[in-house]
Amino acid sequence: MTNQTSLTKSENTLRSQPTVETESPSSTDYAYPPDKIFFGLLNCSALCTIALLIAIFITLIVHSLPSLKAFGITFLLTKTWDPVFGVFGALPFLIGTLLTSFLALAISLPFSLSIAIFLGEYFREGTASSLLKSAVELLAGIPSVIYGFWGLFVLVPLIRIVEMKLGVAPYGIGILTSAVVLAIMIIPYSASLGTEVIQLVPSDLKEAAFSLGATRFEVIGKVILPFARSGIVAGILLSLGRALGETMAVTMVIGNSNFLPTNIFSPANTMASVIANEFAEATETIYVSSLVEIGLLLFIVTMLVNLIGKYIINRMSVRVHHE
Amino acid sequence: MSEHTLSLRIIKDRGFKTLVILFSFITIVPLLFILFHIIKNGIGVINWQFLTSLPKPVGEVGGGIANAIVGTFILIVMSCMLSIPLGVSAGIYLSERREGWLASLVRLSVDILQGIPSIVMGILAYAWVVLSLGTFSAFSGSVALGIMMLPIIVRSTEETLKLIPEMLKEASLSLGVPYYRTVLRVILPAGASGIVTGILLSVARVAGETAPLLFTAFGSPFMDVNIFKPVNSLPLVIFNYATSPYPSWHQLAWGASLVLVGMVLTLNFSAKLVTKRWKVQF
């Protein structure tokens, strides 16, 4: 009896051996049991990453249900955020996030574009370029809480002086300060992607323009930038995604005011900073779930911005490889 | 006339180049400023006592960040334990199954995971771990950090293993080596440096994260190695001290910043060194 089973087993292994040999190595069925287990594990880990994402989404929705039910769409349009009376409207934070992020983008753009042109076209290698490259990498490596700390103790007094000169209320902290800190933080993202796409511009295109007598400035303006445009836009989108979700640096220098900002100097709060400030203190269900709903919104918005950015990059790299 | 326009064009060209160089190097100024302030204010604070003693209440002289250093270490080790096995095997999956709907779905999820704001990760770890255990804990912080590390590890593993030539795999298979051993003993060792680089970079990224720890690891003034209790970490210490009204705590925060920046930059630097010294070359 035992003998027989062992015989059939060995027969099975013998029979299954040839299937391994004949099929291509990338086939899905491996008859050899350890291979089956191994592939089972790999499949499992792949499914885990997907399950993780779905779980994140469901968790956020479930925990924001009370506020979704109570406020519906008015959540986005109400400008009062008053935990004492249980009135929650996210409008001040939406405006705060949009203002800081786009202002930061506007401030960072000339710098990141210059770095991209510098590293991608003017100085592809050499001391100057490796110096600048390491500086950009260092900027990307500094933790955000350090940016916030530095902003609070060095930048805030500077901005206060500027505000006094301009004759506005000298808070020092506020939307402008956070936008400046954010701008420094996001430069590396758009700069490094911009450098890559500018380096991808085919040299025959550039040489053709040079041979017609174009100056380098004209080549950059009329050949390189139009060719690299979509990649540069993608880099800007990715750094926007980063700016939208950035928490600590902004929390420390924006002033944490839950009122609708009146101008770019006024203290405000962003979606991320209000969560950072109030989540640990929130006790009532509706308060917590309003904060989670802000988190859900933030998640969806950054996801869309990032996915559009990635889509543009993929399309562009396909185009470059075809040419 | 044409002379004139030509010189104008040349002037524009030179002007543009100067502008590009100028703007590029202005970017270095804030970096130098930040490093300068951290080193200037931090270096005086750091001494043996600062690194080895516990925080003291306001008003007492001295006090250190020993528990924050230990806490950061605990958080990093635990988040590595959570994220490396899953991340590396998902990376292997992606490099072995390059086509197919599941692979592209996994890639999409990894991309989305990478973009999730860190504060949202804090909410998730709070909802999953803190609510079910009923207390803030080092474990919940590691869950948040581990999920943040995952996408970087998956992507770097995939990219590295894709570079390894098919020949290597075919040679091993042709000798009758089973598939799983081929992957574990031939492909993984060949790509080890890239995977290690990815892990170092992901650690460097989460070592400085504060937002996901605010309501998970929470911070504590005690030395605690119990992973189911609140734990302190360097970024949390910097945040709490920097936003406090006491100048002596600000000094401690500068010291902690110097330690943290030193740590993160060392990690980034060693990641670079690993790639350079121990490159995947074929």
Describe this structure in words.
The complex is a heterodimer of chains A (323) and B (282). Chain A has twelve helices and two strands. Chain A is mainly alpha-helical and 323 residues long. Chain A has two domains: 70 residues; 249 residues, MetI-like (MetI-like fold, Orthogonal Bundle). Chain B contains twelve helices and no strands. The radius of gyration of chain B is 24 Å and the shape is globular. The model of chain B has no long low-confidence stretch (mean pLDDT 91). The longest helix of chain B is centred in the first third of the chain and has 31 residues. Chain B folds into two domains: 42 residues; 230 residues, MetI-like fold.
Which key phrases capture this entry?
heterodimer, A: 323 residues, mainly alpha, MetI-like fold, 2 domains, two-stranded antiparallel ribbon, 2 strands, 78% helix, globular, disordered N terminus, B: 282 residues
Instruction: Return the CATH topology of the largest domain in chain B.
Output: MetI-like fold
**What's the CATH class of the largest domain in chain B, please?**
Mainly Alpha
Instruction: Write the element-wise H/E pattern of chain A from the N-terminal end onward.
Output: HHHEEHHHHHHHHH
CATH class of the largest domain in chain A: Mainly Alpha
Percent of residues in β-strands of chain B: under 5%
What's the mean pLDDT score of chain A?
Answer: 87
Instruction: Indicate the multimeric state.
Output: heterodimer
SS elements, strand count of chain B: 0
Topology:
The complex is a heterodimer of chains A (323) and B (282).
Chain A: H1 2-22, H2 33-71, H3 74-77, E1 81-82, E2 87-88, H4 91-122, H5 127-141, H6 144-166, H7 175-200, H8 203-211, H9 216-245, H10 248-253, H11 271-278, H12 285-322
Antiparallel strand pairs in A: 1-2
Chain B: H1 2-26, H2 28-43, H3 48-52, H4 66-96, H5 101-115, H6 118-133, H7 138-163, H8 166-174, H9 179-190, H10 192-207, H11 234-242, H12 247-277
